[in-house]
Design a protein that fits this description.
The chain is α+β, with helices and mostly antiparallel strands. 38% of the residues lie in helices and 15% in strands. It folds into three domains: 73 residues, no CATH class; 89 residues, Phosphorylase Kinase, domain 1; 230 residues, Transferase(Phosphotransferase) domain 1 (Transferase(Phosphotransferase), domain 1). The C terminus is likely disordered. It is a single-pass type I membrane protein.
Length: 461
């Protein structure tokens, strides 16, 4: 059924009471607007066809033969399609969100991996550069061990020989049966500068009074140094009276102490003058001097060492180096003088005086105030030409060696570095006769000022 609009003159507004002949004769106009409205569109979306009932009401004719006033199946299909569309849209949005999250994770993982590769590459380059550095200079490269090798030679770090600020030293054995000392550096600063310094410095040396470096381990964070084994340990165990009871031994005699001091002097003379480049040790002390089976001294622990050119008399030094009691005054007071080889001379002098006294140079628990600082006490006895009061002096030879070590040691610890002898002069003084040595000026005990450690120094007379 189609609605029509009749011309004027007819009383009825529909075609059911009008003769077709009259209708066709007079003409009529179809009215389609209702079939193109929103209801018809919704009907078509539900699968139906738009139409009208006999009483001109809109109907939606469905495929199953039924008709409805609005849409087919009371809106079921439309609702299902709407839900389907909404579900599809939600799924698309969810999938897009998941894709974004996965993409972000992959990008972040890739960036992190690239950073890790860059860092790893830098470490690999540094390690490679570290080893190649020796080869380019024509220096014989010591053997490089893996961490597994280090663990094997020390029997899983079974026997500890000692411990210091750097880490621990363990006794080990190479496959050929040679005993070694393995130093594990577990407390590295920065990029392991101390480790690199030690290998670099020791690879330049070859002297009877320098500990021989047999190999090293440089793997990721693992650092180890393999030295020749020193059966008599460090010098500090030998010289201090407090250790005699622990070790079940006594004073080793003045000839032994004299030969040890002369050997240390030879070793330092070699570092300062005999190497291709001058090496300043910066940490000479009894703890870093080791003794082989014949009590031949060997200088070790070059972690704080610094290589300098021969033509330079002084070097720049950032921050204090060394151990308290063995550090020179010029480190804290630059007005006294620059940092030079005289630093090691001072440390050697303090070491030799501790060998003479059989005690630390500074002992706050001493019974008398005059004995707190040993260099002052022994210097006063020399000035007054009194007996030195040292242990185990049983002959004129012992007395001469002890007195010679005292006088040379006092010259080495002078506050003004220009007054201190260089190591070649120290060797000559120790070798010469005691009668040709004059007593040095009184040494001063120096320590950094608490208020300004880099510009001033407190003096104790």
């Amino acid at each position: 059924m189609v609605p029509v609009e009749l011309k004027g003159g007819f009383s009825n507004q529909t075609i059911k009471d009008v003769h077709y002949k009259e209708l066709l004769k007079n003409g009529f106009r179809l009215k389609w607007d209702i079939l193109t409205n929103k209801s018809c569109s919704v009907c078509r979306e539900s699968g139906g066809r738009c139409g009208r009932s006999h009483d001109t009401e809109f109907l939606c004719y469905c495929p199953n033969g039924a008709s409805h006033s609005s849409i087919c199946n009371s809106g079921g299909k439309l609702k299902a399609r709407s839900l389907l569309k909404k579900g599809a849209l939600g799924a698309s949005i969810s999938a897009f969100g998941v894709a974004i999250i996965v993409l972000a994770y992959l990008c972040r993982h890739k960036i992190s991996k690239q950073k890790s590769m860059i860092i790893g590459s830098k470490k690999m380059k540094k390690s490679h550069k570290f080893v190649v550095n020796f080869e380019n200079r024509g220096i014989l490269v010591t053997r490089r061990y893996s961490h597994a090798d280090i663990k094997r030679m020390t029997n899983s770090f079974k026997e500890k020989l000692g411990e210091g600020g750097y880490g621990c030293v363990y006794k080990g054995k190479l496959p050929n049966g040679l005993l070694v000392a393995v130093k594990i550096l577990s407390r590295l600063k920065g990029d392991g500068e101390d480790f690199i310094n030690e290998v670099n410095n020791m690879s330049r040396t070859s002297h009877v009074n320098i500990v021989k470096l047999l190999g090293f381990c440089f793997h990721k964070t693992k650092r180890a140094l393999v030295y020749e084994y020193m059966p008599n340990g460090s010098l500090e165990k030998l010289i201090y009276e407090e250790n005699y009871f622990k070790l079940g031994c006594g004073h080793h005699g003045w000839d032994t102490l004299y030969q040890i001091s002369l050997g240390i002097a030879h070793g330092l003379e070699y570092l300062h003058k005999g190497c291709n480049s001058r090496i300043l040790h910066f940490d000479i002390k009894p703890h870093n001097i080791f003794l082989d089976e014949n009590y031949c001294p060997k200088i070790s622990d070059f972690g704080l060492g610094k290589i300098c050119h021969r033509e330079k008399s002084t070097i720049s030094l950032l921050g204090a180096r060394g151990t308290l009691g063995f550090i020179t005054a010029e480190v804290f007071c630059r007005n006294i003088g620059g940092i030079s080889q005289k630093f090691d001379v001072y440390s050697f002098g303090m070491t030799m005086l501790e060998m003479v006294g059989g005690r630390k140079n500074i002992m706050t628990e001493a019974e008398r105030t005059s004995e707190i600082y040993f260099p002052h006490w022994i210097h006063k006895r020399l000035e007054l030409q009194e007996e030195l009061g040292l242990q185990n002096v049983t002959s004129e030879g012992d007395k001469e060696k002890a007195e010679k070590m005292v006088i040379v040691g006092l010259w080495c610890i002078q506050t003004n570095p220009s007054i201190r002898p260089i190591m070649s002069e120290v060797v000559d003084m120790l070798r010469g006769g005691v009668d040709f040595l004059r007593v040095s000026p009184k040494p001063y005990l120096s320590s950094p000022s608490r208020s300004s450690p880099t510009t001033s120094m407190s003096m104790v007379v």
